[in-house]
Amino acid sequence: MSYLKFDKNLMINLEQSLPKEMLRTNQSGAYHCTTIVGCNTRKQHGLLVIPVPELDDNNHVLLSSLDETVIQHGAPFNLGLHRYKGDTFSPNGHKYIREYDCERVPTTTYRVGGVILKKEKIFITHENRILIRYTLVDAHSATTLQFRPFLAFRNANDLCVENAVASRDYQEVSNGIATCMYNGYPSLYMQLNHKPRFVFDPHWYKNIEYIKDQERGIPYSEDLYVPGYFEVEIKKGEPLIFSAGVEEVNTRTLTKMYEDEIKPRTPRTSFYNCMKNSAKQFYITNKEGHYLLAGYPWFKIRARDEFIALPGCTLSVHHRQDFELIMDTAQRALYDWMRDGTLDKHLDGLELPDIPLWAIWAVQRYAHDLNAEAARERYGKLVKDLINFIADGRHPNLKLDTNGLVTTDGTKRPVSWMNSTHADGTPLIPRTGYLVEFNALWYNALRFAVEELFGEIEEEKDFVERCNKIAAKCKPAFIETFMTDYGYLYDYVNGSYTDLSVRPNMIIAAATDYSPLDRRQRKRVLDITTRELLTPKGLRTLSPNSYGYIPWYLGTPEERQTAYYAGSARPWLMDFYSKAYIRVFGLNSISFIERMMIGFEDEMKEGCIGSLSELYDGNPPFIGRGAVSFAPNVGGILRVLRTFKNLHIIDE
To answer: Is 62 within 8 Å of 49 (Cβ atoms)?
Structure first.
């Protein structure tokens, strides 16, 4: 029995099936994302969505969807599904779906009278190409398939309208056609492994609507261009493969290409395997190096998210080499920035003040996964240089104070992961001065450098002494600055102002390997976090008892910006929560943390199936919102699962 299988009763019920989305990527920036019934509900959905660096640094929808029509005895049965103006769904192809299975590759089985047709989709790794394999499982008479491609050729964050500029030209290629709607875009090659008949029948399909965008209070209607249709006979048991890519392919190789691509895939037969597959989908390789995308379908590569997600998305799934490739690219970028302020064109936010701290934290995870010697040899110099960069006062917005704490200016621009803004770009949450997680990570970095990397190295005694002196001042100053009379930690302190909001950043201070808190203080922080912030989907960004709590991430863009960090829950924080819990309660805590994972395993069949959404509502039923698949969340939960594995609690 498949771990991710949905039967006919769910598939034909659009209230249940439309909220469920699927995602596949090529690990080079391109992706395919839609609902499990094939009806696009976001402008970012598409069958082939790719980066076009010649135009900009965004993704672009080339092929929005492909409508299939089964023809028997001259009678057409259209398997497509779109929502049009007036809440009209057409042509209602979902009523023919018998089963949807996403264990190995997304597989839809249709039944049309006596015809049973199976459709399987797969992305080619590191190539802008998607293959769709059709297999006629059963049929009582001759069967013909028609394919109508819905073309967009637009930025994934824009919408298309009928226009006279779009080119209708196409050229015939091997078993298909190539076309390009606008200058600057690559041609789209649509080919099959059997020779089809292409009928040029150009039409604009108008007023196609996207439900999710409508819910978000943003433009949600567009027109898509269909140049015509392919028609080909399909025989029982003989696979028919449709290819869509930006380069012409030898159609005789399509069958082998499909089989070679599917062989190394890990079946999604367990919670861990779902998370492992999801983690790999964030890997990005391009000419400049290796990166980790923050999330799909609209996020880019962001430095903070990359470092937070990196250990879980690589080391926790036994991909040490991928950690090193991604970290080596980031290391070069960090040195370029420290040298003369040069910013990597892909790694957004490298200049933000907490980036060096998260980078050192990621190296620390590498040291624990391998050993300190390996970490010192590969990244020891980076850790030392980052600490000195901060301690010497060379960071433009992270300054070392005389008390050993670090301070930052977050009044004009958000400086932490809680980065929602007003319309003018100023922070909604003006976290400035001493930030609790900044200083927890700073103290942890100092102690890590001494205790694990350089403490026994004679040549580094001056550096070790410097770290020890700063840490000796930092620890008591941290307690004096952040500890409240109620047992929790101030979120930030700016001069005489102390922010009383109960937020989850304090759990990082209780979870780090080298915490400025003693065990009693950790427990007090943990108790309040458990009581006020813990949900089945992660930690709330604000306590319901704090002023301004908003549990629902809904409404207009402005309303959602306000609600972004006002109570919604974040799964990635569960990694820190579980570490703090284990440090306080020992192995007796494992069963409790394990039960908390049930809420995340339930999500494997919700939202973007097999992955985790960007955030979840702070109140029941804790619905997933935002980006459909978010790297820090996947990485954080994988690190929790890895903790269980190390303690022999679960099997992979």
So the answer is: yes
